[in-house]
Design goal:
CATH superfamily of the largest domain: NAD(P)-binding Rossmann-like Domain
Strand content: 15-25%
CATH class of the largest domain: Alpha Beta
CATH topology of the largest domain: Rossmann fold
Number of strands: 13
Bound molecules: UDP-4-deoxy-4-formamido-beta-L-arabinopyranose
Number of domains: 2
Shape: globular
Oligomer: single chain
């Protein structure tokens, strides 16, 4: 079975391709290389022994998308990762986000709508919940007005998919990720750092390796046990495995509705200071950090209620925070030649 993975050379896309190939799927990866590198293909091959078919293609080019699907009419499922994902950048450059995250989704769905039937897995985010009232967060927690164009593109994307599924032969599963971290245990693939990391864990590992002087902890005056924000940090390999399970659910027509939604997290919340302590434990070194002002737009706490994914998908995150940080640290040392 041939599976299309858009954004396939990205952080989560590349880890998902490994799991797809491990399960015997043939994969064709599309990526415009705006936030990834061709070297990821070698990394995937080193892990699975197979290099996915790769097409460098920008999904913003409608004609190119149409031609791609004309030439590849044997695709059984699509996992759609291709999107820009930096919250801060989306505030500065909203139109880049609406074009890259929405237009591309529309062009792919337009091609799938032409098919007898189509299976579509969408990369969504817990960001759609904003600051949820109740913890842990369930899939029917209310969607709050987005606080960034990035978050808005995920909400709009979910709405577009829901409406299209109603009037087409597309079946879809929306996967709402919490905070993906870590790298494949082989350290052959991982989060490719471009510029100064916005996210906590890559900044921690770059500080640990000496690339950054110190970590700035954005506020310790939140209403949480230690004053720092709480998140649900999920190992990217656990996340990747969930995508294959969701895809198989659609391929085997086990889905109960045309569109299903699942939260993907560990179900455990960890504060920034707890992540720092866990990193110090796995790296066996102190981390330099200082407490600074809060970051605009940060929510206080978010961690997943994973009952639905556990019971319906039969999926549960296996890695602990420490496992995930160990893999992130191993990857950081590998890419810095340490
Ligand atoms: C986590 C915590 C920061 C950096 C974002 C997006 C989300 C998803 C994941 C794409 C927060 C604190 C961070 C630093 C810090 N992206 N922090 N110092 O903001 O929860 O989620 O990335 O899908 O959609 O919103 O992740 O890693 O940026 O921050 O103190 O240098 O770490 O304040 O509490 P976030 P993050």
């Amino acid at each position: 079975m041939k599976i299309l993975v858009t954004g396939g050379l990205g952080f989560i896309g590349s880890h998902t391709i490994v799991e797809l190939q491990n399960q015997g799927f043939d994969v064709i990866a599309i990526d415009n290389l705006s936030n990834s590198s061709l070297s990821v293909l070698e990394g995937i091959e080193k892990i699975t022994g197979k290099k996915p078919i790769f097409e460098q293609l920008d999904l913003r080019d409608k004609l190119a998308v149409q031609n791609f699907f004309k030439l590849n009419d044997d695709i059984s499922g699509v996992i759609h990762f291709a999107a820009s994902k930096a919250v801060g950048e989306s505030v500065e450059n909203p139109l880049l986000y609406y074009e890259n995250n929405i237009n591309t989704l529309v062009y792919v769905l337009q091609e799938l709508q032409k098919k007898e039937s189509a299976n579509f897995i969408f990369s969504s985010s817990c960001t759609v919940y904003g600051q949820a009232e109740k913890m842990p967060i369930t899939e029917n927690a209310p969607i709050q007005p987005a606080i960034s164009p990035y978050g808005n593109t995920k909400q709009i994307g979910e709405e577009i998919i829901a409406e299209v599924c109603k009037v087409s032969n597309i079946n879809s599963i929306l996967l709402r990720y919490f905070n993906p971290i870590g790298s494949h245990p082989s350290a052959e693939i991982g989060e490719l750092p471009i510029g100064v990391p916005q996210n906590l864990v890559p900044f921690i590992t770059q500080t640990g390796i000496g690339l950054r002087k110190e970590l700035s902890v954005y506020g310790n005056d939140y209403p949480t046990p230690d004053g720092t924000c709480i998140r649900d940090y999920i190992h990217v390999v656990d996340l990747a495995k969930a995508h294959v399970i969701a895809l198989k659910r659609l391929l085997n027509k086990n889905n109960l509705e045309k569109i299903e939604i699942f939260n993907l997290g560990t179900g455990t919340g960890s504060s920034v200071l707890e992540v720092i302590a866990a990193f110090e434990k796995v790296s066996e070194q102190k981390l330099q950090y200082k407490i600074v002002d809060r970051r605009e737009g940060d929510i206080i706490s978010a961690y997943a209620n994973t009952d639905k994914a556990n019971t319906i998908l039969g999926w549960k995150a296996e890695s602990t925070l420490e496992n995930a940080l160990e893999s992130a640290w191993k990857w950081e040392k590998k890419i810095r030649g340490k």
